[in-house]
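#structure-requests
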Amino acid sequence: MALAMLVPQGMAAACTDMTFESASYSVCEVAADADLRLFLAGPAGPLQSFTAIDAMLDGTGERLAFAMNAGMYHYDLAPVGLYVENGREVTPLVTR
């Protein structure tokens, strides 16, 4: 699963590279009302890479501005714990 921001073609995200205690980070600032989405699977199954998300969006007029890993996964790529997408519970909450 990836947390991703989408922007119309031709726009860019406001990301900068930073270093803290000798570790490098990319920091992206996003408005609270930005188009942030979770991507777990596409029509062909699990989207195992950011490249796969880009390919799925190709031709839609949308472009991936940035993406990051948004969870932990089982070996079959199913999310560990609660996962809700488009208002539908895909994986239930683990309570034990």
